[in-house]
Each structure stands twice: as structure tokens, then as C-alpha cells.
Amino acid sequence: MSKLKSSRVHTPIVLVNFKTYVEGTGKNALKLAKICEKVNLETDVCVGVVPQFVDIAPIAGAVSIPVFSQHIDPVSAGSFTGHVLPESVKEAGAVGTLINHSERRLKLADIDATITRTRKTDLISVICSNNTAVSTAAAALKPDMIAVEPPELIGTGIPVSKAKPEVVSGTVNLVRRVNRDVIILCGAGITQGEDVAAALRLGTEGVLVASGVVKAKDPYRVLIEFAEAVLKA
User: Fold this and answer.
1) With contact defined as beta carbons under 8 Å apart, do 144 and 160 qualify?
2) Is 65 exposed, middle or buried (0-12, 13-18, 19+ CB in 10 A)?
3) Which residues fall within 8 angstroms of residue 113, CB to CB, at 6 or more apart?
4) What is the CATH number of the domain that holds 192?
5) Is 149 an active-site residue?
6) 66 Cβ partners below 8 Å, 6+ apart?
7) Which residue among 10, 42, 87, 149 is the active-site one?
8) Per the structure, how many domains does the chain have?
9) What is the reported pTM?
10) Residue 101: active-site member
11) Domain hosting residue 72, numbered range
């Protein structure tokens, strides 16, 4: 999908956030990324990974699937010690970045400035939002993707597509009125293929997942189930 600035990214997409889980750190992160790549190659379903900053370069150099950053700061090169420069994650091999994850909240002005920086660096912007109102406001900023994730469901194993389907369907309807081009993802509690299928039925174009894959006893099996749900949708 050319409008997403990367030929490797297409929808429906399964985006796997490694967070800072031990299972998604260092050598484990590389191993998990290769499992994600295997599923992608076997099914042709787009599977992207979102590792920690220090793992972006080794993973991007080892797999063919899209790699995203967990965060960037809206800064330019210069005196910004401790900040994450967009150009640095781009050079490391990332094709995009999460923005405003529930574990890394930003003010609206910072979200806007960060999206501006992604445009200048050709990074795909994925804004995380917690409800319909925030998603609608975010859509007006014209990001590439919006991932709606009620924070109270994150890591619970209770999928938002089942627990709060109205949040997903309402988000899709209202966001489309503001921005017809943005890609809408669904997150929080996604652990089974049926969760993915339900999210797609509600009008989304993919899912943002984390512990359901990263901490699974058999990540390959879980991802294959996700991919099969995508293919049947």
C-alpha cells in the first residue's frame, strides 16, 4: 500500500508490540520477530513487529517484515539528550512508529508535532487512542493509522471487540466521517483468532496485539490462528 510509505505494509495487518517483556527483549526479540516473519511468509498476511529501540536495528537487519518503533519524540537533531530522534529509528530500519500508547501518553500538541515529524521522515504513524472521542480527534490530525485500545482491557485477555464492540464500531463510524483514508486497528485483549475476526467484522483493518502473542507459550500457533482468521474474513 503505497500511501503507507512502505511496500511491506498492507492491510489487514497484525501488529505485535513487544513492549518491555523479557520474552520480547534482546535475543528473545529477534527469535520472536523471526516467528512473525515465518507466519508472514507462510500466509502472506502482513505481520509487523514493534520492538524496543535497541532491538530495532538487529531485527530490521534480520527479517523482511515491517518493523515499527514504540515511540518517537517530536525533536530535530541537536541538544535533546535522552529523546528519541525520528531519523534515528528510521535509519535503524523502522518503517513506522506508535504514538500515544496508553503506557506512553502524550499531550495533543505533542501528538500533532510527532505526526508532523513522521511525515518529514517518511515514517508510518500509528496513533493509539482509548475511546471513540479521542480516536475522532486523532483522525483530524491525519495519521496513517489509529489503534483504539481501552486501557482497562489491555493485558486482560478480554478482547475489546467482544467486551466493548460499540467502542470499535462507533470509532469506525465517527472516524470515517472525519478521515476516510486513515486505517483503523483494534487492540486490547486480542488472544484468539476469533478476536481478530470479530475486530475485522466491526470494520477495522487489523489488530495491535502484545501479551497475547509475546507471552504465549507458542507464539507461532497463536499467530497462525490470527492469520487464518484474517484470510477467512
Assistant:
1) no
2) buried
3) 74
4) 3.20.20.70
5) yes
6) 6, 8, 9, 46, 48, 49, 95, 96
7) 149
8) 1
9) 0.92
10) yes
11) 2-232
